[in-house]
Task: structure prediction
Amino acid sequence: MREYLFYRIDLQLFGEKTEPATPKRRSELREKGQIPRSKELVTSMVLLITFWSMKLLSSFIFKDLVMALRTFLSFSKDIDSQFNNSDIMRIYIKCMVIVSKVLAPVLLIIALVSVIVNYLQVGHVFTVKPLVPNLNKINPVEGFKRLFSKQAFVELLKSILKIGIIGYVVYSYLISNYIMIPELLDMNIERTSAFIGNTIINVGIRAAAVLLFLSFFDYGFQIWDYEKNIRMSKQEIKDEYKLIEGNPQLKSKIREKQRQLSLRRMMAEVPHADVIITNPTHFAVAVKYDPSASDAPLVTAKGKDLIAQRIKDTAKENKVPIVENKPLAQALYSSVEIGEKIPEELYKAVAEVLAFVYSLREK
Result:
């Protein structure tokens, strides 16, 4: 029987990017304008709103366009007298005003929809970095790679899918209304224009609606592809953390050095204490009372376990009294920091200890 050996391979050893991007990296990419968004979502929404607004305003648009056409063709019998610069300019300006009045609402709606859809996708972003010239964009080698890249292949498939679906929707609508085409021969020019315009608008609305439906999938794909491309390796995350927070090993050494200096300063105060209150083995608290400097006793040093033993050893070397009082030692250690006054609720207990120590000194 064959035996197979399976080994767990850590992809991080090969620099595999498997970790989600950090907030710092996302912020940097956002400043560069690299944000997941779907251009097709904006295009489809603009097309849908455009055709929809044209359908709602069709009667007004048709009426104004007819007025513009009549104005442009309103010549008197003496047509030769109309062809001078002033009259032609007057007719031209009047027609442009009518056309502008027709197009202004539609263009305003298009601009507003474009801004809103883009803002909903990317939020508030203002950067000029994408406008900075990049030589890689005009590099033939890089352009050839992009032409045959996976992204280009995906875009090709998406385009074929969109053309096929939209083409089927448009074909279905036209087939369902082909019976009206022969009747165009009996219609006047106004009814013919209205039928053609209505057909174009209805086809545009259906095509834009299908494109909008497909663009939601494209937006989801863009987010997924963006998250995949910005992944980071664990080493990159570590390097970024070092860059922001500093080297952890160096910071650990600095903290250790600070603890040692603080311990030395604290141990230097032990010989000047009035009494050392102990647990007796786990806690040791040095208390000093100087009426000229403070109105209450101060905790000048404290420690637990090994540090408590060092405090007691230093106290013995300097002949500082050591008093065993378990509840008081625990209360002082947990509630009073070094250099702080003891709380009022411990005045009586500490006063009794100090009185006992002072009585020993007098004897």
The beta strands are 275-278, 283-288, 298-304, 322-324. Residues 28 and 34 are 9 Å apart (CA to CA). The domain at 266-362 is CATH 3.40.1690.10 (name from scop).
